[in-house]
Amino acid sequence: MSAVATHCPYCALQCGMDLTPTGAPSSATTTVAPGGREALPVTVSPREFPTNRGGLCQKGWTSATVLGVPDRLTTPLVRGADGELAPASWGEALELIARRVTAIQAEHGPEGIAIFGGGGLTNEKAYALGKFARTVLRTPNIDYNGRFCMASAAAAGNRTFGVDRGLPFPVTDLGGADAIVLLGSNVAETMPPFVQHLAGARAAGGLVVVDPRRSATARLAEDGHAGGNGIHLQPVPGTDLVVLLALLHVVLAEGLADHAYLEERTAGFDDVARSVAAWWPERAETVCGVPAEELRRVARLLAAASPSRGGRGAYLLTGRGVEQSTQGTATVTATINLALALGLPGRVGSGYGCLTGQGNGQGGREHGQKSDQLPGYRKIDDPAARAHVAAVWGVDVDTIPGPGKPAVALLKSLATDGGPRALFVHGSNVVVSAPNADRVRERLRALDLLVVCDVVPSETALLADVVLPVTQWAEEEGTMTSLEGRVLRRRQATDAPGEVRSELWILAELARRLGSDVAFSTDPAEVFDELARASAGGPADYSGLSHAVLDADEAAGGAGLYWPCPSGQPEGTPRMFLDGFATPDGRARMVAVDHVGPSDDVRADAPIYLVTGRVLQHYQSGAQTHRVPELERLVPDPYAELHPQLGFRLGVPDGARVRIASARGAVVATARWTEAIRPDTVFMPFHWSGAGSVNRITTDAVDPISAMPEFKVCAVDVTPVPDGLSDAGDPLGSLAADSSARTQEVPA
Amino acid sequence: MNTLRVPLRVVIVGHGMVGARLVDELLRRDADGALDITVLGAEPYEPYNRVLLSDVVAGRTDVAAIGMPLVDDERARVLRGTVAMSVDRDARVVLADDGTRHPYDHLVLATGSSARIPAIPGLADLPAGVHALRTLDDAREIVAATVNGPRAVVVGGGVLGVEAAHGLAGRGLQVTLVHPAASPMERQLDTEAGTVLSAGLEAAGVTVRTGVQPSEVLVVGGRAVGVRLEGDVRELGEVLGAGLVVLACGTVPETGLARDAGLAVDRGVVVGHDLASVSDPAVHAVGDCAQPPEGSRGLVAEGWDQARRLAERLAALAADHSVASLPAADEPVRGPREHLRLPKEGQRPSLAVRLGALMSSRAATDHGIETRGTDVVKVKAGSLSIVSMGRAGTGRTPAPGERTVRLSDPDAGRYVEAVVAGGLLVGATCVGDPRVAADLTAAYTRRTPVPADPAFLLLTPVMPAAAPASSPEHMPDDATVCRCNGVTKHDIASCVRDGASTAEDVAKATRATTGCGGCTEAVCGLVDWLRTTQVADGDGAPEPSTADAPGRPSLTSL
């Protein structure tokens, strides 16, 4: 059979790949032979595509393994009277859900039902989910895990530029710049093929990485020819904003700003300039721990790379490291302010961008699964937007609910007084990926009904009353929108196993069983056409696109089309803002911000910072990657990085078990000594459940504007685990062995 | 309370760094319009960052870039160029030079300090060419005077004098720093550290003269032409010729208004931990003009921290304020506990310009305020890095339980001292090592655990990236060669042993080089070396091919 051109199931780089069907059965009913790639239904080969230029990381290469995992969900599961999940027919499962939903609605009203979506869902699924919530359930309570990763950059981008597209330029543009600043982003682990786009800046000595750890990405700045390929700044956790305020201070103090650009293209500069007058580099140094002269060096490097001073271009890029903070919106705003002062955004070859994380983290935030949004990135409280979308959906505008609670607040409210009693989870493993995860688990256990759609029995699925098996990437058609706003086709290469269905079908069935007469197509191309109509005139306008248009573009050698792509503008918009920003007067709105510091700062009983992050071999909660032996072999267990000086001080040798406790709880992991981390900081990757699941102790304090939680910094105490004490012992108390199923009966 | 609430009237005298900060802190805390604020500022300018005046002198900052945020709020009136002349404490009214009267419920003195002018001949009225460095006018005049002649004398080798001398030398002037003590910054640095600093200044072009002080400023035709020295002079009556003389001889708190109003004044306005005058609970003092129980170092961080503490107290009073609730003179003093609070959601300022980290005053004891964290002295002298904090250098009286470690490396311009007690860094000095200085500051202000052996504090803890192995031979077997695909040297060696002869063969078998491609050169080199050694070992590996140019394997060949 011939190869099917599609994209990787994992991150937002959406590397091009070809899937060649092997003729093997689509479902592994028993076990897959170790390393037996030939037993899988498809083989993966990299495809030349602008984002990955023919490269794939190990996750992408091994992605087909997830199609054949032995514990793939292939039938609906319903928790029986014995408390165990047992196979059920679709009819039984859906009827049960419909009956329970109706009962809960009768008792608690439409707000009694909530939906939690995901940034890995296709545009079509994300759209259908938002529509289902607003038209069938009529609940305001829908949000998604993108709140954990994209919300701060989105809030800042919308506020300043009037629109939020992660990279408002093709990723390949980065290659021509003299300087690239990566703030809180470890692309060498999280999207490895992206590193190719840093080559130009590295060659120019202009790669700047801001990270409390000397990460794999930071090493890219330090390695290389004499003097290195750039600069690594290593601030105290939670002080990235100070670094940015000081950089802008230096740019203004040394007369390096692009005043002509500021005059012509921005508003609010004077306030911002005054606000950074208090952040001279020596003061900033005492707060952020970065030497004043290093701050000056970076500011000068950036200015020299800027077009107004004759450089080839400069980019400032933010990632989760700076965004997942109670001052994440402010930090992104400060980044944008710096970019504007240098005259970068809206110029070819320069700019600001946010490195979107999840596969469809961009599209996922545009089509209405966000609590305050309607399709096309419209605001749900905008009367014109409501009227437009209501007409597309064929519903009375007044039946569309208003804004709901953002993710953390939504999860906290579950089964509380006045909170939702039922939750649908789609494409998210919240008990591993949400902050303060033990509280989330408690809330889920307290629900009257938990329905989880997933491909494997994730930790969250195991808590559900009803588990619905759904299609995954190679088994479905649809579209994804890359980190650059490039709309891509996801194509089916193999049939889904067993009774697996698409969420589109599930939502249509539930709508019908719940007595709704709102139309839900199960054909992804039709859903896309409806999505395109709903988005028409919105900031993220897809109305000029369809599956057919995208297929034709690809057949003609195109590489995807960028939104906004209104129907009269079939070429789309690879580069935004060239003629003006998406604000009423076309000017970027500069907003003064200031540093406050982490919500959970170090203190006598928690004197160490904890930062969290990722490893190359795993993706998010690891529901997929822990099931890939080649990945699991390399990084099987959670670990905690700490500096030898700290380890020695605390009596925690390299390789020993270490207990890390915050105000919310404690975890246990294996200590790894490394001289690449600040001695006042420990690092843990968050891809695990169980005793080493770091999100059990991260804080769920949120940014006041974006409602994004502060995953990236909290205060902890670090202590050795005495020999002979098992992880399930006292250090964790009741936290251990928490994968036990719910024993509560499902009310019939 | 059903009483009609009227706003609490707060009059602030002084609109410098601390007075302006206080306005901002008050407004941020006043959610319901319970405050009515009047600020009297003597200077005619918009608020500016006085700390940066030495940077203006150095040419390191554009004067236009030191403007601080303007107050734009109906609850606060800022009267620029208005001088407070007297305070009628009985009537609770401030009288201004323009005849206006400003009644208050609470008065805050933030009058700052003025430059100390030595009482020597020639300085009775400052002649042209002689300037203190206290105001924007001073800084502008000094910059203008740098064109008058090539030589300058800076009198006083404290922090400001060091910054000014270094800055003027950076402008190309021949600068002599005249300092009466044995070494500069002797309030912070011991002689050894001071000597390293002197050497750094000399290397930057500053002539450092210690043990001498001016006995007279020579004036010709109303212009300064030189400074006569006394003390450790090279010849009796030694004169340093200079067309520019900068006086950095310390400051004198501006207490005239307080003294005239009958408030207790010592060096500064005497206040308690609550920053209220010991003579009148309705009058407060913050910043350089205040003399709190814990003392004052004249650092802006201290003044800003005081502004924050006072704002919390006044905002709390305002919230409770009603017509009849003026504080009685014997009202119990509110403790300093308020400032221990962590910020809550929704209390986030947007425009506020604040000290930032909670580092400023996290610790308080029942004995009073512990100021650790606000006492970091960081000199602004470009690449010359000097920082002093806490109980270190000459600011330290050795105490039981403390350990001090020092690294003295004068030939390299480096001196580091760390003082540790109870597992925490309680003081440090660092000259000439900016990375270590930044780490010490972070450890000091945040009280993070210090190493078991404090000697580790003397060097940078985060090691630079390990140099890549110079040859494949020296690479450990488990070293990851291809990060993107987790391929080690061992994997590649196995692959070559199994017959792979090119990087493309290795890529097919292991996927090395197929991610970001960054390891292609390393893989090619490794394959070449492995084949050579394995052939030499006689293990039957095929002959090396000759035509393989290093380069990324074509993926279509996979």
Describe the structure.
Chain A is of the alpha/beta class. Chain A folds into four domains: 4-68, ADC-like domains (N-terminal domain of TfIIb); 77-149 and 360-562, Rossmann fold; 152-355, Dimethylsulfoxide Reductase, domain 2 (3-Layer(aba) Sandwich); 608-735, Beta Barrel (Barwin-like endoglucanases). In chain A, helix 2 (90-108) packs across helix 19 (503-513) and helix 3 (123-137) packs parallel to helix 19 (503-513). Chain B folds into four domains: 8-114 and 252-369, FAD/NAD(P)-binding domain (3-Layer(bba) Sandwich), CATH 3.50.50; 130-249, 3-Layer(bba) Sandwich (FAD/NAD(P)-binding domain); 385-458, FAD/NAD-linked reductase, C-terminal dimerisation domain (Enolase-like, domain 1); 472-557, Orthogonal Bundle (Arc Repressor Mutant, subunit A). Helices cover 23% and strands 24% of the residues of chain B. Chain B has eleven helices and 29 strands. Chain B has helices spanning 17-29, 53-58, 136-145, 159-170, 191-203, 256-260, 300-320, 434-446, 489-497, 503-510, 520-536; strands at residues 8-13, 35-41, 76-80, 84-88, 93-96, 101-103, 106-109, 113-115, 130-132, 151-155, 174-179, 206-210, 212-220, 223-231, 239-241, 244-247, 251-253, 269-270, 283-285, 290-291, 364-365, 368-369, 376-378, 386-390, 402-409, 414-421, 424-431, 480-482, 487-488. In chain B, the strands form nine sheets. Chain B has a five-stranded parallel sheet, with helices on one face. In chain B, strands 9-16-10-11-12 form a five-stranded parallel sheet. A five-stranded antiparallel sheet of chain B has the order 23-24-27-26-25, with helices on both faces. In chain B, a hairpin with a 4-residue loop joins strand 25 (402-409) and strand 26 (414-421).
